[in-house]
Design a protein that fits this description.
Length: 133
Amino acid sequence: MDHRTAILALIVLLPVTACGSSDGEAQSEPDPLIEAEAQARADLAESGMIYCALGGAPNFRPDCQIEQTQGNDGVVLTMRHPDGGFRRLLVTDDGRGLIAADGAEPAVVDPVSEREIEVSIALDRYRLPATVR
């Protein structure tokens, strides 16, 4: 398994919990357009690139590289920006999925669909393939 496949495999297994209805209603069918977009982003992540919206930009672009390394505290994902900046996320095994690996800004993880999450740190946002449970 090469490093890009390992990154995708790791992200896909993140335990992210989605908010569901509390009254037991059945989940609606996934939106085909959202699913197709999530698949395209997952395919891109296999090549080591992800969609990001940096510095408060309103639109996502496939401009960030993603790398996986083993740190002292566990697996670290580094999102590298086109301008040389970067953000690091620590993969947790306590149910949170991802947290900021360093810096003062916390990472906020929100499910986008059953196959994708959005991670926000300050004004930077990233779309990552993941299984939402």
